[in-house]
Specification:
The complex is a heterotrimer of chains A (about 290), B (about 300) and C (about 425). Chain A is an all-alpha fold and about 290 residues long. Chain A is built from 13 helices and no strands. Chain B is an all-alpha fold. Chain B has 13 helices and 2 strands, in the order H-H-E-E-H-H-H-H-H-H-H-H-H-H-H. Chains in contact: A-B, A-C, B-C.
C-alpha cells in the first residue's frame, strides 16, 4: 500500500510518510530555489548583484531595477504588449485553422490520412534555424518584415502543424456515435464540427492554444531576425538585446526584466491549468 | 515539398469524393503550410547544392554534392550531432523520470494545501527559456555564482567548480537547467494520466494485495505508456530546436562542447553567412528528423493494433 | 508598438499628417527627406538618451531631414545589415564596428566615402583613424569614434600585493609574477580580467595578446596555429587559468561591475570602462585617477599592440539621399554637440578628429585616462586581418583558447585542431 498522507490510519509520522514529506520538500526546493534567486537578485543593487560572495537576502532591498525598467527610455510596456498580442494572435490563428483540419484528418476514412498526418508531424520537427533565411526573404517580399503580422506568420510555421497534430488526438477521443444523431438529421459536416465536436473538445482547444502561446513566447530566433525596430520587439528578445549589450552585464536589472517576462506566462499558465489537465486527460492521454 | 502537397491533396480528393467537406477542411492548413513551410524547405534544398555565401557578390554557383561531401568529413558537424542527441534524449529521459517520480509522489493528495504545492512544483515550466538561460548562467558563475557559493560554504566542494567553463561539465550543466524547466511538464501530464486510471483497476489490484512497487510497475506504468510516448515526442521535438537556452548560456562553448546542430547551423548561416553549406546541414538534419517521425508513427500504429 | 490593424494605422497616419499640415511646420510632409539610421546606440539603455538627443539636435539644425532610428542590438546588427543589403532594403546609414565593418564592405553594398570627405576634415582626422577602413574602392566606412583597449591596473591592489603601483608590468614575465603576488596576497581578487567567450569580438580582444607572444595565426604573414609562438601563448593561458589568475568564460561586460568594487587587479578593456565603473561605484574623478591607471599591453616577444574597439558609420550605395546621409554622418562624428552629448559622454569613447572646435572638450581630452589613451595606447593600434575568414577563424581560435583554459587536452592537440578549423 502506498502511504497516504491524508489518512490518519497510517499515522502522520510513519517512516513512509516522513520519506514522502522529505521528498516533497526536496522537490519544492529544487523547483523554487532558482525562482527565489531570480526574485531576490531583482531587488539587489547593481553592485550587490555582482558580488563575488553572493548574499542570500538583499542587504539593501531596492526597487530601482523595476522602476529602472519602467522609467527608462526603453519601452518595456510596448515589449510586453507586443509579445502578448503576437503570441495570442498566433494561438488563435493556429487553433482556428487547425481545428477543421484535425477533425477532417481524424474522421476521414481515406488511407492517406496517415501520410498527411506524417507530413504534418515532420513539418512540426522542422529545424527553425534552417528555414530562417528563406522565411526572411518570404516576409521581405510580402512586406511583412518588422511587423507583428510577420511575426505571427513566423510563429505559425511551428504552431500550426503542432496544433493540427495535437487537436487530432482530442478529436480522436470523441466517440463517433456522438455525431451520428446529427448526421442522421442531415446536418452538414461543418455544423457538426461547430455545434457538436468543438464544445466537446473545448478543454483540448484551450490546451493546444496554451501550448502554441507558450512556444511562441519562448521563441527567440524569429523576433531577433524579423523585427528590426526596438519598439516592436518582444520581451524575450528585448531581454537579450538590452542586457547583453556592449557596456556591462547588469544582473539585477536583468533579473527584474526576467521576472517581468515570466509573470504573464505564469499567470496565463495557471489560469488555464485546470482545463489543461482536463484536456490532457481526455485527449493526448486517453487516445494515442 | 510543395509538389508533394498538391499531389497529396489531389489523392485526398479522389478518395473521399463523397465527403468534400472533409478535404475542404484540411485545405486552409495545407495552403498555409505550403507557403510558410513548403516554400522554405524547397528553397533550402536548392541552396544546399550551391556555393552561396551572402558576403560574396558573385552569384551563387551550382556545386552539386560538394557541400554534402564536405559535411561528411566535418568533425564539428558530427560532434554537434552527438551533442544534439545527448542533449535531447538525455534531458528528455531524465525529465520524464523526474516528472514520473513527482507524479507518483503527489498522487492522491487532494486539498488546498496540496493544490498549492502542486502549483508551486509546476512553476518552472512557466519560466521562459531565455529567462531560464540567464538565470542559470548567473547561478553557475564560477566566482560569485550562488551554486558554487552554497557548495563551498557547506563544504561539499573546496574549490569553485567551472560549471559552464569546462568542456566536460558544460553540457551536463546546461542539461540540468533544461531538466529543471522541462520536468514539470511531465509531472503535469503524468499526473493527469494517473488520475485517469479507472478506479476499478486500482481496487482490484489492491484486492490482489499488490505492493507499492508492484502496483506502480504492473498496474500504473502500462497506463502511463502512451502519455509518456506522446509527451516525450513533444519534448524531443522542442529540444531538437532548442536555441535560446544553449545560445544564451554558452553560445556552444567552451570549444564546441555544447554546440548542437541548431547552434552550428546558426553560426554557419549567420556568422559566416555560408548559406549553401548551412542549408546542406539543414537538409541532412531534416532527413534524420523525418526518419525519426516515421519510426515514431510506426510505433504508435503498432501500439494501437 | 505593433499595430495589427492596417486600416487603423493608415487612419492614424493620415490624421497625424493632417495635424502636422494644419500646424504649418517649417517643411511640409512631402518634401521632407527621410533617413533611416540602423544603430545599437538606441538599443541600449546607457546610450539611448544620448543618441536620441543628438538625432533631435541634428533634425532641429536640418529641418528638411527626418531621421528614423532603427535600434538593433550590437550582436545582431551585422547579420541584419548583410541580410538587408542582400535583399535590397538596407538603411541609409548604419553604425558598425570591428570585423563586421569589413564583412559588410565585402558585400559591395557600401558607398565609397572619399568623394564626401572634404579636405579640412581629412586634415583634422587623427592619424591612423581610418586604418583598415579602405579597400580597392577607397574609404568604405567613416570612423565615428575611437575606443582601443588598454591595460588597466588597480594601484591599490598592486600596493597591497607589495608591487610598485606606478610600475605596471611591461613584459609577460613581469605580468605573470605580478599575478602570482596578487593571488597570494588577496584571494578575493580576480588578478586578470580578459574576455574568453567564443565571439568574433573575443578574438579581436585577444589578438594583441597573441601578438605579444609573436603569434599570428591567420592573415598577412600568418604562421598558423601550430607555430611555437601560438603554442607559447596557449600554454601561458592555460598556466594562468590553472593558477586561478583569470575567470574564464565571462564576457568583458561581466567583469566591469566587479572591477568597480575593487575585485579586479588588471583588466584588458576599452576607454569606456571608466564611465561604467564610475556609474556603478559613484567614485569621483580624483579618486578614480588615484585608484586606476591605464597603459599599453605587456609584451612578450613582440611589441605591444591594441585593437580598435571604436565604431564606424557606413552609407549604403543603394540609398537615395546620399548628400543628406553624409551630412548626418559628418554631424555624428565631428560636431561638437554630438561629441559632447554622445561620443565622450554616454559612449565614453574618443572622437576620431584632432580638434573638436570646443575648448572644454579639448580640455577633457587632456585628463589622465583620455590622455593615456591618446598619447600612449592609440599609437599602438594595429589593424587585424578582418574579413569573412576572420569570423571563421574566430570560432576555431577561440574554441581552442577555451579548450586551453578549461580543458586538459595537450596544447599540441589543441593547436592542431585550431589549424584544422582555420579557413584554408
Amino acid at each position: 500500500m502506498k502511504p497516504n498522507l491524508q489518512s490518519s490510519r497510517a499515522g502522520w509520522l510513519s517512516p513512509g510518510n516522513i520519506a514522502r514529506w522529505v521528498a516533497i520538500g526536496f522537490a519544492l526546493l529544487w523547483s523554487l530555489a532558482p525562482i527565489y534567486w531570480m526574485l531576490s537578485t531583482s531587488f539587489k543593487t547593481e553592485l550587490e548583484a555582482a558580488r563575488l560572495d553572493p548574499t542570500l537576502w538583499p542587504e539593501a532591498p531596492t526597487i530601482a531595477n523595476y522602476s529602472g525598467l519602467m522609467g527608462t527610455s526603453l519601452p518595456f510596456v510596448s515589449f510586453f504588449v507586443n509579445t502578448v498580442m503576437s503570441c495570442l494572435l498566433t494561438a488563435i490563428v493556429c487553433v482556428v485553422i487547425a481545428t477543421p483540419a484535425a477533425y477532417a484528418l481524424s474522421r476521414a476514412r481515406f488511407r492517406l490520412a496517415g501520410t498527411v498526418g506524417y507530413a504534418i508531424l515532420s513539418f512540426r520537427m522542422l529545424p527553425m534555424v534552417v528555414v530562417l533565411a528563406p522565411l526572411y526573404l518570404l516576409l521581405l517580399n510580402a512586406k511583412l518584415l518588422d511587423s507583428g503580422t510577420g511575426l505571427v506568420v513566423g510563429f505559425t510555421t511551428f504552431g500550426l502543424p503542432f496544433a493540427v497534430w495535437m487537436l487530432k488526438s482530442f478529436v480522436d477521443a470523441v466517440p463517433i456515435e456522438v455525431e451520428e444523431a446529427a448526421r442522421v438529421d442531415g446536418y452538414p459536416r461543418w455544423q457538426i464540427l461547430l455545434k457538436v465536436v468543438v464544445p466537446l473538445i473545448m478543454p483540448g482547444i484551450l490546451t493546444t492554444g496554451t501550448f502554441v502561446f507558450m512556444e511562441a513566447w519562448n521563441n527567440l530566433i524569429y523576433p531577433l531576425t524579423f523585427i528590426t525596430t526596438i519598439e516592436k520587439q518582444t520581451l524575450p528578445a528585448a531581454l537579450v538585446l538590452t542586457f547583453t549589450g556592449q557596456f556591462k552585464t547588469d544582473w539585477g536589472g536583468m533579473m527584474a526584466a526576467a521576472t517581468i517576462t515570466t509573470l504573464p506566462l505564469m499567470i496565463a499558465f495557471f489560469a488555464v491549468q485546470r482545463s489543461m489537465v482536463r484536456g490532457l486527460t481526455s485527449g493526448a492521454v486517453a487516445g494515442a | 515539398m510543395a509538389a508533394e502537397t498538391t499531389t497529396t491533396e489531389v489523392r485526398v480528393r479522389s478518395r473521399a469524393r463523397h465527403e468534400p467537406w472533409l478535404d475542404r477542411m484540411v485545405l486552409p492548413t495545407l495552403v498555409v503550410m505550403a507557403v510558410v513551410v513548403g516554400y522554405p524547405i524547397v528553397y533550402t534544398i536548392a541552396l544546399s547544392v550551391q556555393n552561396y555565401n551572402l558576403l560574396d557578390f558573385r552569384p551563387a554557383a551550382y556545386v552539386g554534392a560538394a557541400n554534402y561531401t564536405k559535411l561528411a568529413g566535418d568533425p564539428i558537424f558530427w560532434g554537434s550531432l552527438a551533442n544534439t542527441a545527448i542533449y535531447t534524449f538525455g534531458s528528455v529521459g531524465v525529465s520524464a523520470l523526474l516528472g514520473l517520480a513527482l507524479a507518483l509522489l503527489m498522487e492522491n493528495l487532494g486539498g488546498a494545501r496540496f493544490r498549492a504545492i502542486r502549483a508551486l512544483l509546476l512553476t518552472p515550466w512557466a519560466v521562459p527559456f531565455v529567462v531560464v538561460a540567464f538565470l542559470f548562467r548567473y547561478m553557475y558563475l564560477q566566482n560569485g555564482g550562488v551554486i558554487n557559493a552554497v557548495l563551498l560554504s557547506t563544504g561539499i566542494i573546496d574549490a569553485p567548480v567551472p560549471w559552464l567553463n569546462s568542456s566536460t561539465l558544460a553540457l551536463p550543466a546546461v542539461m540540468v537547467a533544461n531538466v529543471w524547466a522541462m520536468a514539470p511538464f511531465f509531472f503535469l501530464l503524468l499526473s493527469a494520466a494517473l488520475s485517469a486510471i479507472p478506479n476499478e483497476v486500482i481496487e482490484s489490484a489492491r484486492v490482489d494485495r499488490a505492493g507499492t512497487w508492484g502496483m506502480i510497475w504492473h498496474i500504473k506504468l502500462p497506463f502511463l505508456r502512451n502519455p509518456l510516448l506522446i509527451s516525450s515526442l513533444l519534448m524531443v521535438i522542442s529540444n531538437f530546436n532548442d536555441f535560446a537556452k544553449i545560445w544564451a548560456m554558452t553560445q556552444g562553448g567552451p570549444g564546441y562542447s555544447t554546440s548542437t546542430l541548431v547552434v552550428y547551423v546558426y553560426r554557419l548561416a549567420f556568422e559566416r553567412f555560408e548559406f549553401g553549406y548551412a542549408s546542406a546541414v539543414g537538409v541532412i538534419w531534416l532527413t534524420m528528423l523525418m526518419v525519426l517521425a516515421w519510426i515514431y508513427m510506426r510505433v504508435l500504429r503498432m501500439e494501437s493494433r | 508598438m505593433i499595430r495589427f490593424d492596417r486600416r487603423g494605422l493608415r487612419l492614424a497616419t493620415i490624421s497625424i499628417a493632417a495635424l502636422v499640415a494644419g500646424m504649418g511646420g517649417a517643411a511640409s510632409a512631402q518634401d521632407k527627406i527621410t533617413l533611416t539610421f540602423a544603430n545599437w546606440a538606441a538599443a541600449e539603455g546607457t546610450t539611448r538618451p544620448g543618441i536620441e538627443k543628438v538625432i533631435a539636435d541634428f533634425e532641429a539644425a536640418n529641418p528638411e531631414i527626418d531621421v528614423v532610428s532603427e535600434a538593433i542590438s550590437f550582436s545582431e546588427i551585422a547579420r541584419q545589415l548583410v541580410l538587408r543589403a542582400r535583399s535590397g532594403n538596407p538603411p541609409d546609414v548604419a553604425q558598425i564596428a570591428g570585423n563586421d565593418t569589413v564583412l559588410l564592405a565585402f558585400t559591395g553594398a557600401l558607398e565609397p566615402l572619399d568623394g564626401y570627405v572634404k579636405e579640412n576634415l581629412a586634415a583634422n582626422l587623427k592619424q591612423g583613424a581610418d586604418a583598415g577602413l579602405r579597400d580597392d574602392g577607397g574609404l568604405f566606412a567613416f570612423p565615428w569614434n575611437q575606443s582601443p583597449a588598454g591595460f588597466w591596473y588597480n594601484k591599490e591592489i598592486m600596493q597591497k600585493a607589495g608591487l610598485d603601483p606606478n610600475k605596471p608590468p611591461r613584459t609577460i614575465d613581469e605580468l605573470t609574477a605580478a599575478l602570482a603576488a596578487i593571488k597570494s596576497s588577496q584571494p578575493d581578487v580576480i588578478p586578470l580580467a580578459i574576455d574568453t567567450t567564443n565571439r568574433a569580438f573575443a578574438l579581436s580582444s585577444n589578438w594583441p595578446w597573441m601578438k605579444s607572444f609573436g603569434a599570428v595565426p591567420v592573415g598577412e604573414g600568418a604562421t598558423g596555429a601550430e607555430s611555437a609562438e601560438m603554442k607559447a601563448y596557449l600554454s601561458w593561458m592555460r598556466k594562468i587559468a590553472q593558477a586561478g589568475y583569470i575567470d574564464p568564460g565571462r564576457r568583458i561586460g561581466e567583469f566591469r561591475p566587479l572591477a568597480a568594487q575593487g575585485h579586479v587587479a588588471f583588466i584588458w578593456d576599452q576607454v569606456l570602462l571608466k564611465g561604467v565603473m564610475q556609474g556603478a561605484s559613484k567614485m569621483s574623478d580624483d579618486d578614480f585617477y588615484k585608484t586606476w591607471g591605464v597603459t599599453t599591453l605587456p609584451a612578450g616577444a613582440g611589441k605591444p599592440t591594441t585593437f580598435e574597439g571604436g565604431h564606424q558609420l557606413v552609407m549604403f550605395a543603394s540609398g537615395k539621399q546620399k548628400e543628406a546621409a553624409w551630412k548626418f554622418i559628418e554631424y555624428l562624428a565631428t560636431s561638437p554637440d554630438a561629441i559632447a552629448n554622445y561620443t565622450m559622454s554616454v559612449n565614453s569613447s574618443l572622437p576620431s578628429i584632432k580638434a573638436t572646435g570646443k575648448a572644454e572638450l579639448d580640455a577633457a581630452l587632456g585628463t589622465p585616462v583620455f590622455k593615456a589613451f591618446s598619447d600612449e595606447i592609440i599609437p599602438t593600434l594595429a589593424p587585424q586581418p578582418y574579413g569573412p575568414d576572420f569570423a571563421a577563424a574566430a570560432t576555431a581560435i577561440m574554441a581552442g583558447v577555451q579548450e586551453a583554459v578549461t580543458g586538459s587536452q595537450p596544447i599540441d592537440d589543441i593547436a592542431a585542431s585550431i589549424q584544422l578549423g582555420l579557413p584554408q
